[in-house]
Amino acid sequence: MRAIVKCYWKFYFILGLLTFLEEGTKVVLPIFLGKIISYFENYDPDNSAALHEAYAYVAGLSACVLVWAVLHHLYFYHIQRVGMRLRVAVCHMIYRKVSVTRYHSVYLP
């Protein structure tokens, strides 16, 4: 188990940072959405500053959704790859231990 941790800790640390960024964008999404809703609740056709502010919130919301989509798929792709590598490594380790045990029980008195 220590060998697996030594081998994959850096990669999982990087994936943890990606997950942190993904969750951060998921936290910011409702804030942007709330600001857009408050713009429409307090709509004033003569207030162009509020309109530009609403445009900024819409751009932020769109950017967060795009970043979330990219990070989410990137994260799951790499987690699946590491999971397959770990499965192969653990199965190989179990196979080697079983084969060594069988070899010693057959050929040693």
From TrEMBL:
One GO cellular component term: plasma membrane
Highest taxon of the lineage: Eukaryota
Domain ABC transmembrane type-1: residue ranges: 13-98
Natural source organism: Muntiacus muntjak (Barking deer)
Signal peptide as annotated in the record: none
Keywords: ATP-binding, Membrane, Nucleotide-binding, Transmembrane, Transmembrane helix, Transport
Keyword Transport (UniProt): yes
InterPro entries associated with the record: ABC1_TM_dom, ABC1_TM_sf, ABC_transporter_C-like
Transmembrane segments: 12-34, 54-77
Protein name: ABC transmembrane type-1 domain-containing protein
GO molecular function: ABC-type transporter activity; ATP binding
